[in-house]
Amino acid sequence: MTWLEPVTLSGRHARLEPLLPEHEAALAAATADGELWNLWYTTVPRADAVGTEIERRLGLQRAGSMLPFAVRDLASGELVGMTTYMNVDASNRRVEIGSTWYAKRVQRSALNTECKLMLLRHAFEQLECIAVELRTHFMNRQSRNAIERLGAKLDGVLRNHMLMPNGSMRDTAVYSITAAEWPAVRANLEWQLARPRAMPGTQGA
Fold first, then answer.
1. 142 in a domain, yes or no?
2. Cα separation of 205 and 108, whole Å?
3. Residue 199's pLDDT is what?
4. What is the per-residue pLDDT for 202?
5. Which of 22, 34, 49, 96 has the fewest CB atoms inside 10 Å of its own CB, making it the most exposed?
6. Is residue 89 in some structural domain?
7. Nearest Cα to 28, choosing from 52, 58, 50?
8. Per-residue confidence (pLDDT) for residue 148, from 0 to 100
9. Which helix (H) or strand (E) holds 154?
10. Structure confidence at residue 203 (pLDDT)
11. Do 36 and 42 touch, CB atoms closer than 8 A?
């Protein structure tokens, strides 16, 4: 058995299911909600490239460096996005939560908060991770704000870290949550889920 095995994680608002090729049509419809690929500082696939992206993620899963999920909105029963454990470092019990996107209609909703809670809980309480990373474009202020609201700390900025599809260079902001910080982060996320929330709005983390 490998350290990181496919698993289904279920909550009140969302279910994280192992990503499968047959998810292509539903996820293509989800990415078209808001034409998410037009955000220049993200790498969300176009609707007609979702199949290729699913195969890329499944290839990384076979190589042992990623565990990809499809995100299902339990209110509608529809698939509304993707997320992953990536940059898997089994020997040091570290993962990154990333390559995440959601259909516009569920952004800034309880669904995103619950998905982060489920992924972090599994990482710290089942996989016994010593730390979990979250990364984003330095210019993606909304994503950085959302990561900071989780309680993650900024480790630093990797300058000229990635070449973006439009030819620009990405400076990557690297955040992390350590095992010692997890109890406080968990309490904060559980509190956020319990309090009344506004209706979903614009782009989230």
1. yes
2. 8
3. 41
4. 31
5. 22
6. yes
7. 50
8. 93
9. strand 153-163
10. 34
11. yes
Say how many domains are in the chain: 1
Output the domain CATH number for residue 44: 3.40.630.30
- Residue 195: per-residue pLDDT: 80
153 touches 175 (CB < 8 A): yes
Q: What is the mean pLDDT of each run of 10 residues along the chain (205 residues)?
A: 90 97 96 68 80 96 96 96 96 95 87 95 98 94 89 95 86 97 96 69 36
Four-point Cα dihedral 25, 32, 122, 205, nearest 10: 170
Q: Which two tokens stand for residue 108?
A: 């800034």
Instruction: At 197, list the tokens.
Output: 């929330």
> What tokens appear for 184 in the block?
């406080």
Residues 6+ apart with CB under 8 A from 196: none
At residue 198, the 3 state secondary structure works out as coil
User: At what angle are helices 50-63 and 24-32 packed, to 10 degrees?
Assistant: 120
- Residue recorded with tokens 């709005």: 201
Token reading at 85: 């454990």
User: Side-chain half-sphere of 19: how many Cα atoms within 13 Å?
Assistant: 30
User: Domain range for residue 71?
Assistant: 9-194
Task: Please name the amino acid found at residue 62.
Answer: R
